Amino acid sequence: MSAEALAGRVQPVAERAGPIISIDNVTRRFERRPDFAAKLAMRLGATFNRRVVHAVDGVSFEIGTREVVGLVGESGCGKSTLGRIVAGIDSPTSGRILYRGEDVAGAPSEAQREFRLRVQMIFQDPLDSLNPRYRMGRAVSEAPRHHRIVPLSELEGHVDRILLKCGVDPSTKDRFPHQFSGGQRQRIGIARALAVNPELVVCDEAVASLDVSIQAQIINLFMDLREAFDLGYLFVSHDIGIVRHISDRLVVMYLGRVVELGPTQELFAKPNHPYTQALLKEVPTLKRRGASFCTIQGEIPSPLQPPSGCHFNPRCPFATKRCRSEVPELRQIAPGRFSACHLNDDTR
Question: What is the pTM of this model?
Answer without folding.
Answer: 0.86
